[in-house]
Amino acid sequence: MRSKWITHGGKQIFYQDFSNLDIEKSHLVKDELNAVQEVVMAQPENSVLVLADFTNTPIGRDLMDVMQASSARTKKFVRKTAVLGVTGTKRILANMLMSLTGQKLVMFENESDAKDWLARN
Predict the structure, then answer these.
(1) Residue 16's beta-bridge partner residues?
(2) Number of domains making up the chain
(3) At 53, which CATH number?
């Protein structure tokens, strides 16, 4: 698993690392999603601060069903989600994901701002 716990501003943040994955190997994104679900669902409800990094990873419709199911399963455990690397078509898909699952995703252009936002109450 590429994802890991990090600390920023005294807060534990679960850094979900989907960055730099090849679209031809979409199974890598799916495998990582399955792994992070297990970690998130082992935490208390409404407690997890998530930083999801999709920088340089193409996301197509083929992954939307998997991402929607993952989001639906983990939603009650997540307090806040910051997302990196979501521009262009990926932003449209992220907006669709939010409307389908009701899980709010806040997009950021740099990691430092995302971590600062997550660390604030």
Answers:
(1) 52
(2) 1
(3) 3.30.750
